Amino acid sequence: MSETKFLLGCERLTESPPKWLRSARLGLLSNQASVSSSFRHVKEIIISAGGRLSCLFSPQHGFYSEKQANMIESANGRDEELRIPVVSLYAESRVPPAEALDLIDILIVDLQDVGTRVYTYTTTMGLCMEAAARAGVKVVVLDRPNPITGTEIEGNLPDVDFRSFVGRYNVPMRHGLTPGEFAGLIRSEACDECDLEVIGMRGWSRSLFYGDLGFQWVFPSPNMPTWQTALLYPGMVLLEGTNVSEGRGTTIPFQIFGAPWLNQARVFERMEKSGIFGAVLRPLVFEPAFDKYKGEPCFGFQLHITDKKRFMPYRTGLAIIQALLAEHPEEFRWLDPPYEYEWEKLPIDILIGSGTIRRRIEAGEDLDSLESEWSSDLAEYRLGREQFRLYSD
Hints:
The protein is α/β, with parallel strands linked by helices. The protein has two domains: 9-220 and 383-388, Rossmann fold, CATH 3.40.50.12170; 227-362, Aspartate Aminotransferase, domain 1. The chain is 29% helix and 13% strand. It contains twelve helices and ten strands. It has helices spanning 9-12, 20-23, 42-48, 98-101, 121-135, 179-190, 227-236, 264-274, 313-327, 347-352, 357-362, 367-385; strands at 25-29, 52-58, 77-79, 84-88, 106-109, 138-142, 196-199, 256-259, 279-286, 298-305. The strands form two sheets. A seven-stranded mixed β-sheet has the order 3-4-2-1-5-6-7, sandwiched between helices. Strand 1 (25-29), helix 3 (42-48) and strand 2 (52-58) form a beta-alpha-beta unit. Helix 5 packs across helix 6. The longest helix has 19 residues, at 367-385.
């Protein structure tokens, strides 16, 4: 028996083209990473199949994934080849305007997510689904892999009062869903009247990491250069809420962290006691070209993943913060808002999705104790997730 060939949703779209592909006015939410396994952009795939694109939409970082993060907005534009508008959904408004939805009958969504709640592409997809439901526009999601598997989940679910643009829906930090599955959850949670169709992948199983697929990673945002970065991201992103560099302004963001005042020996010893599974810390010095500590030598570490199946990114991120708090109580601090369009709550609180976990981390509470408290929520989430699963393990 021959092995099933892996196909992305955008590749399966043209296997048996749906009738609407050639008859409807189409919108497309995508960016430069929305390509086939042979690097053909989904825009080209749709046009070659006879589709009529009337409007393009771009998420955070812009249509070409060229913008840096955290409220660096992209402007509306125009696709000169197709002579149609490109509407930014990371600008003054993050919701597709009514006049743009009036141009289309169907909104196609093809975005590479990274499997983490605070990565904003799923929030943008959800806001589009909610707006499309109100406007009577059908949504079609062309599915892509979760690069850090669809089996592993980790972290607390966000408190209702701490929902934000980096956590609009009720999922843990590492959510274990593909974009198509996430769309099903969004419809159930926020817009059950949404006319949703998911064109799924063929040959993907939930236990696969992106590196197991056999084709190249195309970065979906400037600071996500490799799929391994995506595996570190659920924990290292927490440093965005602190005065510690998460490696922005270097070639390996989220793989390294540090600050001019960090004592490597003391932090390393503290981390050794806390226990890191599936990764090692290697001391290094780096100098960011932009962002925190631009042009200053930062003493810190690179995280090297040695066992991707055992590695727990969220726990590791919390352990790093706890070590920094313990060893540098005078230098370490939480950053103030604004952060991702939240103007009052601390960035770390909306990243974590809680107003209490930060205080418990500050108090040095044992991480095993924290994890045990949200284990029942995770079990309930895992059970509820079953109705949205499109793929087997």
